[in-house]
Structures
1.
Amino acid sequence: MTTVAAPSAGTALDRVDGPEKVTGRARYAYENVPADLAYAVVVQATVSRGEVRAVDADSVLQLPGMIATIWHENAPRLAPVEDAELTVLQSPRVAYRGQVVAVVVAETLESATEAARLLRVDYRPEPHDVELRPDHPGMYRPDHVNPNYATDSELGDPDTALAFASVVVDATYTTPAQHHNPIEPHATVALWDADGLTLYDATQSTSGVRATIAPLFALPPESVRVISPYVGGGFGGKGAPHAQVVLAALAAKQVGRPVKLAATRRQMFAVTGYRTPTVQRVRLGADEDGKLSAIVHEAFEQTATIKEFAEQTTVVTRMMYAAPHRRTSHRLVRLDVPVPTWMRAPGETPGMFALESAMDELAVACGIDPVELRVRNEPTIDPERGLPFSSRNLVACLRGGAERFGWAGRDPEPGVRRRGRQLIGTGVASSTYPVYRMPSQASARAEPGGGFTVRIAAADIGTGARTVLTQIAADALRVPPAQVRMEVGDSALPRASVAGGSSGTASWGTAVLRACEGLMDALHRRAGDVPPGGLEASADTAEELRSQRPLSRHAYGAQFAEVGVDLDTGEVRVLRLLGAFAAGRIINPKTARSQLIGGMTMGLSMALLEESVMDLEFGDYLNRDLAQYHVAACADVRDVDAFWIEEEDPDLNPMGSKGIGEIGIVGTAAAIANAVYHATGIRVRDLPIRLDRLI
Ligand code: MOS
């Protein structure tokens, strides 16, 4: 007799890897210690532009435990690939301060660190330019913006519409450079043997690292194996391999031994990516009732000289609100700076800070409640693509959030509520994130001794992916989750897409589900009999994805904030943060809530604290550690909560889920800035909201 297990999806299953993590058995990249291991430490350029004239390897030769110094003159040649961030130590050119110009390898980490400190490098410096200015003569129009959106868009005649609008908001907002600071810094252990290259790497995509690194060493992908079962956070910084992965592999090749290379926290501020600073001009035209006639959103951003990274900052504005006239654009300048990369909701995060701040300014100018203003400008179809929405419950989030937050009866007058030494204010902002889905493969196997093993090269970067995939598999196999063993984080497993773009559950979950369905069919044909060698089925979702019908698919949310601003010091405290989300079916309420409030906390941090400060003279980010680059600490995070509304959307994927990894950060900073305006009457358009911007 068969008993069917109760569905696991929808229940708050504890993390299946929780015990490994809290008992220290989970092994992270840096904790791998192959025999004969050597330690590598990087030497970073101390000029912002120029050339390495000489590396004096003799200067460290006599240090104890020294094995090798590697620089552009003696480094193994890499195959030429387009990504100049990865073709390390191939030329004397220095493109930014902090770029790796040499690697020293030694018997111990201490020896290597000392050698890196003492190594004499002589430079021929050139004048540098590291300042992002919207009027920079080098501003150019990139061919497209990430991941592949049109650079500009235009509908109707926004200039004329603005000229005739009854109410106009015209404001410029800036967001600073921000650096990811996952608890686990980037780390790689590289090992060459007869089979090729093995990398223990902290990454959001073992399949991606394999595909990117193999060609650099002229290897077929099968000759590179990337192992990454546990990752201590990524936020996009580990979405693609950076220089240290190549350097570890290259050093291991050079010295003929396994090599371990970790970026220190300080090194991460130059070599593992960051969020570009932005300057954004937003113009909104509306009638007296707050109905938008025109939206113009222009973004100015920086990229590196060695690689273009074009953040899609204003793309979100193309689908957010209805307006007959609209223009969005992106302009970039190549500066002598490190290469920017994805950082949690790249594009939406800075873009929605500007748009949602401007919407608040419009609400004030029109004398309309900011929740109501957004509801009035709700589009019926995607304004840019002309497609129906698969589901769009922004209004339900705004209304539902307002009710739970206690928004009704809010006095719009700024700067009039006092509680003790604080001025009190509340603010709201919309949130959204696209629904991405990527092809993936998976396998499911019925084990002869009972139980199931499901394999996919997915990455659990702390999100709970392993747990949620276990739930999806358990339901498809009609067994309790305890009978499913989920293997992830290894490029030897069936190929999977990156843990990025909030696409993991949708992409990997579909592959897991299809593999399990295939296995169930096979078992059914055998009347449930598992052969002595076990029974396996596999799936590839590429075809299924191609047949998706065109619709506008996005998750939505509304962020509500209450702040207290100290009357004397200008110190801002976020007293309450509430997010209301509509993200399809929630598969695990516990891990989902953690993702959402985690994103909101990062948004709080962005609003008040995070800022990488560029020193124009030295051409480098100054505050390169957690003592100087402030992220929200427990004391900054008080009452942060998230909830979601039930959303049925049959046009997403078999699970009916939308991504939740990134939407939590989107809109949060605007909600807080809008609350600060309500508290103080001061409109802060430049993040972070520092004390000096309020007094
Ligand atoms: Mo996320 S920035 O797509 O890793």
2.
Amino acid sequence: MNQERGKFIVFEGVGGSGKTTQIELAKKFLEEKGLKVLTTREPGGVEASEKIRELIFALRDKNLIGPEGQMVLFFAARYLWLNSLVKPALAEGINVLTDRAHTSTATYQGFAEGGNMEQILAISEVVMEGARPDAVIFLEVSEETSIKRRAAETNGDPFDKQGRDYLGKLIAGYRKMVQESWGGLKWYMVNGEGTVEEVQARVSEVLRRIFETG
Ligand code: TYD
């Protein structure tokens, strides 16, 4: 019997946008509908990529790496993650929900850090081959909400330590990507403001649309 391929859905947004919470709720929602779901994150998700994650953060923290170097390492981590985890799961009919993907490289290393967007797009085409996301759900929150929600966190990554300017660039970058359907992807912009339940209801509505339209 031919196994139907799982869907590959990316959750995007700045720190404090609620991705991590909403991805777990989305998993429950889809599992209640009888679907198989795997949640993962980037950079990381598998052992080798988690090691690259630590390396990127350490180099970034010490200002030893610019946007191109970061880009190469993020894609190296991504390549390993896609081939050892994501592609096999999709082939088995498992739906994969990920907290970030190459779309984050475009926003962070491209829009916010001034890296070359064409290069990022070109590498994405190569690395993402065979695992093109079916949808990107962008959780949109204001700068204020991001700052407020992150104030409660203790384990901020080096990108989270950047100032308000950087945050503004990220948010503007995401909006532009939604408008342009960056990467030829299907983007859904979801209002991430309000309570967990309110945002969850909005995300569920989008998931319904993604799974109904096939
Ligand atoms: P994480 O602690 O998972 O952050 P968040 O909760 O904000 O998702 O750390 C991931 C950080 O790495 C995040 O600040 C965004 C950054 N990042 C990039 O700069 N480029 C990338 O390609 C990816 C995947 C993440």
